[in-house]
Amino acid sequence: MDNGSLYAQFAKAAARFCGKPPVFAIAIGVIVVWLISGPLFHYSDTWQLVINTGTTIVTFLMVFLIQNTQNRDTQAIQIKLDELIRATQGAHNALLDLEELDDKKLDIFRRKYEALAGSARERLAFGTLDTDTPDA
């Protein structure tokens, strides 16, 4: 097993674990204990530093876990959408990997589909259907 898949498995498990209600309850509990301990430590700078440092470290690490999960989910959704396009007769296969195009090429596609949407709204305004099949 390579490090990439080991990290992916860890990130997936950690994200799944951290997203559960009991983990949120534990985080709230830590904050409550920290608040209650304030008078004991006379609300010192060190007392404040403990929570600031702890939350900063957790936030920093969670950003990477969340990004990994988001990337994996986005890739899976993209593959599913690509399969739907591929399997739909009359669909434009040129749309399969739009996420790989540069902004200029994406703009060309976006303008084309905005024009199609405008035409469809005009047809609706005249009481006709806005459904059709893609041009071959």
Description:
- The protein is mainly alpha-helical and 136 residues long.
- It folds into 2 domains: 3-91, no CATH class; 101-136.
- 72% of the residues lie in helices and 0% in strands.
- The protein contains 4 helices and no strands.
- Helix 1 packs across helix 3 (45-87).
- The radius of gyration is 25 Å and the shape is elongated.
Would you kindly provide a brief summary of this structure?
The chain is mainly alpha-helical and about 140 residues long.
- Our estimate of the beta-strand percent is under 5%
Q: Please state the average pLDDT score.
A: 89
Separation, N- and C-terminal Cα atoms: 46 Å
Q: Name the overall outline.
A: elongated
Characterize the main sheet: none
Question: What's the topology here?
Answer:
Elements: H1 3-18, H2 21-36, H3 45-87, H4 103-125
Please give a handful of descriptors for the protein shown.
136 residues, mainly alpha, 2 domains
